[in-house]
Design brief:
seven-stranded mixed sheet; signal; metal-binding; 8 helices; alpha/beta; globular; 332 residues; RibonucZ/Hydroxyglut_hydro; eight-stranded mixed sheet; hydrolase; single chain; binds zinc ion
């Protein structure tokens, strides 16, 4: 190798974060890797509408059971997870959030967890700012349901509103459930302590934005292009939003599936559901419909960015993640 080529190679190596002394071993200098970098959104062009998918971070259930599949044996659970190349005892959840831009509206579907439960979540705000979107420019926030990982981000740790100019929209049924004197958890498998904590957190946030809340009936179309649909079970008024433009659409199925395992095993059940058995029925209905209609889905918690289809093989459904080769944008 002549001197010029040697210098060139050393330059390339250093730009790839390789130290020349380790060339040949391809050891990465981890101190130079910006692994705390903010996460850029994925821009999706859907007909004449653009929507952006943001990450609010990630959640981990260190013990998969009994929160997921409480009545399934450990052996069966681990075999089911292994078949899908998932970890056996841990359930990881992404927190994927959709932002829609259309004419004079900038609409968020949910607001993420906020910083109330640690630093692994609540990244939406900084990711929005990083992408050049001022939180004050958000005009509307559609609340899919009242769980902390969907509404916590409305309020900051100092109790101020993160989106001061936004109007909020929630299904009347969902609002009435959380704001009733004693929300009915008689069909859930949550402990009394868990119920108390979740009700108090949600009531607190909904009270803070009460004057800015508009209630809709599931089945209504919002802003002329977002179809609402009830997906009862996870909560009584959990709402699915289907966004359509130029005969193309994507269905935001929120928390019907928390993990690909629940796509494959919909009847194993999730204790996070307010109505455990109804959650299973809705999961199965959505699987059947989405498979039959080849619907493009977007999910709050399936692996980033949460876009995919439902497939079926040997009577078992599976999550088929949307394939794209342009890391920053997708043309549907
Ligand atoms: Zn959720």
């Amino acid at each position: 190798m002549n001197r010029r080529n040697a210098i060139k190679l050393a330059t390339i190596a250093s730009s790839l974060l390789l130290t020349p002394s380790t060339m040949g071993q391809t050891i990465i200098d981890k101190s130079k890797v910006k692994n705390k970098a903010l996460i850029a959104p994925l821009v999706v062009h859907l007909g004449k509408i653009d929507f952006l998918l943001f990450s609010d971070g990630q959640m981990t259930f260190d013990k998969a059971q009994p929160t997921f599949a409480p009545m399934v044996s450990k052996i069966d659970f681990e075999a089911g997870a292994e078949k899908l190349h998932l970890q056996k005892n841990i359930i990881d959840l992404g927190i994927n959030i959709m932002l829609i831009q259309k004419s004079d509206k900038t609409i968020l579907i949910d607001a993420g967890m906020g910083k109330h439960f640690g630093d692994n979540q609540g990244k939406l705000l900084e990711n929005l700012i990083h992408a050049g979107i001022d939180p004050r420019s958000i005009t509307n926030i559609l609340i899919t349901h009242g769980h902390r990982d969907h509404i916590g981000g409305i309020i900051s740790l100092d109790r101020t509103q993160n989106f001061p100019n936004a109007k909020y929209h929630i299904a009347k049924k969902e609002y009435d459930f959380w704001m009733s004197d004693i929300p009915d958890f008689s069909h859930s498998k949550l402990s009394a302590e868990q119920i108390k904590a979740t009700v108090s957190f949600t009531k607190n946030i909904l009270e803070k934005i009460d004057s800015k809340l508009e209630k809709f009936e599931p089945g209504e179309k919002l802003f002329g292009f977002i179809q609402t649909e009830l997906a009862v079970g996870h909560t009584p008024g959990q709402t699915i939003f289907t966004i359509t433009s130029e005969e193309k659409s994507v269905k935001n199925i929120v928390d019907v599936f928390h993990t690909p395992l629940m796509v494959a095993q919909p009847d194993w059940g999730v204790c996070l559901d307010v109505d455990f058995n109804q959650g299973i029925k809705t999961r199965i209905r959505l699987l059947e419909e989405s498979f039959a209609n080849k619907t493009l889905l977007m999910s709050s918690h399936l692996p980033w960015p949460g876009l995919g289809y439902i497939d079926k093989e040997n009577d078992q459904y599976n999550w088929n993640a949307f394939k794209y080769y342009t890391p920053t944008n997708i043309q549907l």
